[in-house]
Amino acid sequence: MPVVVLDPNLRAGWEPDTPVTDSLLRRYLVNWTASIEAHGLPLGGRSLRRDDLAAVDLGRPSFGCNVATLLAPLFAEGVDEVVAAFDDFYGFSAGKTSGSVFLFSPWPTPDLRPHGWTLVEYQPFMLRPAGGEAPPLPPGLRIEEVRDEEGLRAFEVAIIRGFEMRELDGLGPGAGFSTGMLTDDRHRLWVGWEADRPVCAAATFIEAGINDVTLVATVPEARRRGYGAALTWLATLADPTLPSLLIATAEGRPVYERMDYTALFRFTLWSRDRLGSMS
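The chain above was modelled as a monomer; its predicted structure follows.
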């Protein structure tokens, strides 16, 4: 579906030929959609790319792969066609796929509840300028960058337990993160350890001139010790010459604000469950 621009002589900033340097949001959407593909495709996922949206799907429960993103504003007259495209791609009515699907939009959207979607929240989109220096690590925390499969499995444990992703518990090692990520230099992953236990993790995706801080998690028993902030500093300064951007939760926003992140506006987040059989 082509993006409709009322006056072709005026640039709105979401046209598919818009330079990546046009705005921070343009940089972020290029980075964000590339990062979801770089995470999901090595796990066997499928992707959909149009001028107005991007989507990735594993067809099963996942962490951060069954994600759609609007690349242009969704107006009321376009809702039926876009919803139908998502229905077809994600197989909501086919009954052969499972796992929740999430839809992110940097613009307010029409009400999608009549089409089976649930409004989750409006998440702050936050920016931190380039530069700075991380504070000392909290006592008892050791941080290692992920460089091999053993480190990736520890990262996976910390992320799944930290986000309490029970859907992935029974799928075994490698269900959340493929070793294919290790050969993509745009990914930077870190694990925080207490003795021999992985207790926290964070990730950055470097593309389009920004650090995109994509994942920060701490396991329940290790929270309130400053571990998440310590990992976030590493992710934020993955390339210290670039600004950092992230989509925050309400719980994470105060942590990021203490690191000099500033909220720019809010993304709209929708979700929809799939309860089909994987047989």
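The chain has two domains: 20-122+267-272, 128-266.
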